Amino acid sequence: RFETLIFTVEDGLATITLNQPDKLNAISTKMKAEMLTAVREAGAPGSGVRALMITGAGRGFCAGADLSEGGVGGTTGDPGANLVDSYHPVFLELAHLDMPVITAVNGVAAGAGMSLALTADIVIAARSAFFLQAFVNIGLVPDAGSTYLLPRLVGEARAKAMMMLGERIPAEQAADWGLIYQVVDDAALTETATTMAQRLAKGPTRALSHIRHLVAASAGNGYESQLQAEALAQRAAGRTDDSREGVQAFLEKRPAAFTGT
Ligand code: T3D
Fold first, then answer.
1. Per-residue confidence (pLDDT) for residue 70, from 0 to 100
2. Which domain of life is it from (predicted)?
3. Same structural domain for residues 110 and 173?
């Protein structure tokens, strides 16, 4: 059904595998459209999806905008319009998902591909992967959320050095900096990330969703507003079946069986 990615759903876990390995899964116009469709399907009411994992086929995770298509920068293209028209819908759809998102970064994450990796709640990378703010190397500025996410994750000093120098940051260094959650051996990435994503797909989905939206909101909220936001989310979480089940399971000294409701 899709040409540029593989989309599967199994036991509540949706997986998008970017699948243009010859160009390190660079983001073509077609890929953006297909990503939007896939993310929307995952998030659609009644889809049964409770977690989303994004990874890449081959040796790259995603090399950012497909530069072979033309239209990126130069005198003919309008990258600003490209962003608004076709990147932002995908990235906003991802940001608004009411479920946890994991990226399994199997290789280079460059340009908007790095931005994509960082949209996840949990980023786990193969040891050979690296992160690259490639934009400056082609005379562009970081986009698709990088100027928002990166300083928050690693602080302005490291963020600006990455953005201005356009150097490769190896996965281990990225983890040391707090840019990503975990690094694992290349051979262990798929299994480790899938196990983590499956666990999230069986988690208390409503609470997990509130957690991701609360943390996102914290960037723009003052302390008092964030306390309010927590109280509202906690009221909603406290009314879920999963909350009742979690407490009951604790009292009965058994693992909780969450249903996502
Ligand atoms: O208008 C808009 O869309 C605005 C939005 C902009 C968002 C952006 O993401 S701008 C940034 C775009 N991305 C880049 O500038 C990264 C370009 N790629 C690289 O710097 C390097 O390829 C990597 C550091 C990612 C990987 O290096 P390496 O040495 O491991 O691999 P390679 O040999 O350079 O690439 C392998 C193949 O993938 C190669 O093709 P070939 O020669 O085997 O036929 C290469 O051309 C292709 N490839 C890599 N990146 C892209 C790409 N093809 C198209 N677009 C790419 N971005």
1. 82
2. Bacteria
3. yes
Q: Which of 19, 20, 22, 23 to mutate to test the pocket of ligand 1 (most atoms within 8 A of CB)?
A: 23
Supply the residue whose CA is at minimum distance from atom 11 of ligand 1.
111
Atom 55 (ligand 1): residue with closest C-alpha? 66
How many domains in the chain? 2
User: Does 178 lie in the same domain as 210?
Assistant: no
Residue 65's domain is classified under what CATH number? 3.90.226.10
Place of tokens 């409503």: 206
Pair (192, 66) in one structural domain: yes
Give 75 or 168, the one with higher predicted confidence: 168
Query: What do you get for the CA distance between the two ends of the chain, in Å?
Result: 30
In this structure, are 192 and 219 located in the same domain?
A: no
- Global ipTM: 0.99
- Domain hosting 241: range is 205-251
Strands (E) across the chain are located at 5-10, 13-18, 51-56, 60-62, 101-105, 108-110, 122-126, 130-132, 168-170, 182-184
**Mean pLDDT throughout 189-204?**
98
Asked, for residue 260, whether it belongs to a domain, the answer is: no
Residue 21: inside a domain, yes or no?
Answer: yes
pLDDT(84) > 90: yes
CA of 60 to the centre of ligand 1 (A): 10
**Ligand 1 atom 20: the closest Cα is on which residue?**
134
Is the CB of residue 83 less than 8 Å from the CB of residue 144?
yes
Q: Is residue 258 part of a domain?
A: no
State the Cα–Cα distance between residues 121 and 56, nearest whole angstrom: 17
**Nearest to residue 51, comparing CAs of 183, 194, 180?**
194
